[in-house]
Amino acid sequence: MSDQNKKTRSVALILTWLLLILISLLIVKSFILSPKEFPVPYRLTVEKGQTLFSISQELYDAHVIKSKRLFEIFMISLGSEKRISHGEYYFEEPLNAIEIAFRISGREFGINRKKITFPEGFTIREMSDRLVTYFPNFDVYTFKALANGKEGYLFPDTYTFFPSTTAETIFSTLKDNFDRQIKPLLPDIKSSGRSLKEIIIMASIIEKEASGDGDMDMISGILWKRLDIGMALQVDAPFLYILDKKSNELTSRDLQTKSPYNTYLNKGLTPTPIANPGLDSIKAAIFPKDSPYLYYLHDKSGTIHYAISYSEHKANINKYLK
């Protein structure tokens, strides 16, 4: 082969590589990089069992990705179409299609997510303390600032977060979960004649007063009945909230604490929820069980005993608490 032919072939090869590089760059720019219209911040909710194709359509419609098909190819090539992690995803800045594919597949470039559970009845203070134990560098001050006034409206559940998750993301995830859980119940709340605030306050009290799910609707019926007849609620749970004490630590002097949360000195509900109730206690507040009882107490083992009259209640006190 002549030198001229070799030179021509080399030039052709270089031009071919340049063309391939140019095509690759065009593909990256046109289909992989995030769109200029990327909605920041963007929140994606992936439901359990949701298909890859419905997710890609949702992302495309929201201008989060430029190409549904290329995104689906990324997910399938990674084997991620079978391991989509359901939950809330919060994007504080635009990500490209590959980064999003890694994120919702739970890969996140090798970074493991941490699972954290907030039990029913946890307060914001308890949530904050738990977050610090899971995420040593967690910005607890920002979380508390965001959660201020939201007691009762952060849903207790099991969540998974990346180690770098921000306070804003965690707060939004808990609040959005509450909104999603409560939405199907809004017609029932309206039919109950109570406001959402009243239901959540009552649910938070029930969460702390009941010894188990089986007692919730019964206690709900008793407490709503007390309110309806103008009787003070006379429950101990709010003192645990304002004094940060356990039930067995309360004294008779504590019960005289001057506070709008003192349900012995004040009639009506507490000003705010005293915890973040779970779904069972919320449903119990909406659907109270009618009974002849007006009183109840927990014995030393936690079992609840009911009474119709105050004299019966006093007899239960003498029998089970002395």
Explain how this protein is built.
The chain has a two-stranded antiparallel sheet. A two-stranded antiparallel sheet has the order 3-4. The chain has a two-stranded antiparallel ribbon with strand order 5-6. 48% of the residues lie in helices and 8% in strands. A hairpin with a 5-residue loop joins strand 5 (295-298) and strand 6 (304-307). The N and C termini lie far apart (109 Å). The chain is elongated, with a radius of gyration of 28 Å. The protein has helices at residues 3-32, 52-61, 68-77, 97-104, 124-134, 140-147, 167-182, 186-192, 196-209, 213-228, 237-243, 279-286, 310-320, and strands at residues 42-46, 87-91, 114-117, 158-161, 295-298, 304-307. The protein has a domain at 195-320. The chain is mainly alpha-helical.
Distance between the termini: 109 Å
Structure classification: mainly alpha
How many helices?
13
> What share of residues is helical?
40-55%
**SSE sequence, one letter per element:** HEHHEHEHHEHHHHHHEEH
Supply Rg. Answer: 28 Å
How would you describe the shape? elongated
Please state how the strands of the largest beta sheet are arranged side by side: 1-2
Question: What's the mean pLDDT score?
Answer: 83
- What is the strand tally? 6
Give the uncertain stretches in residue-range form. Answer: 21-31
Beta-strand percent range? 5-15%
Biggest beta sheet summary = 2 strands, antiparallel
Based on the model shown, name its key terms:
single chain, 322 residues, mainly alpha, two-stranded antiparallel sheet, 13 helices, 48% helix, elongated
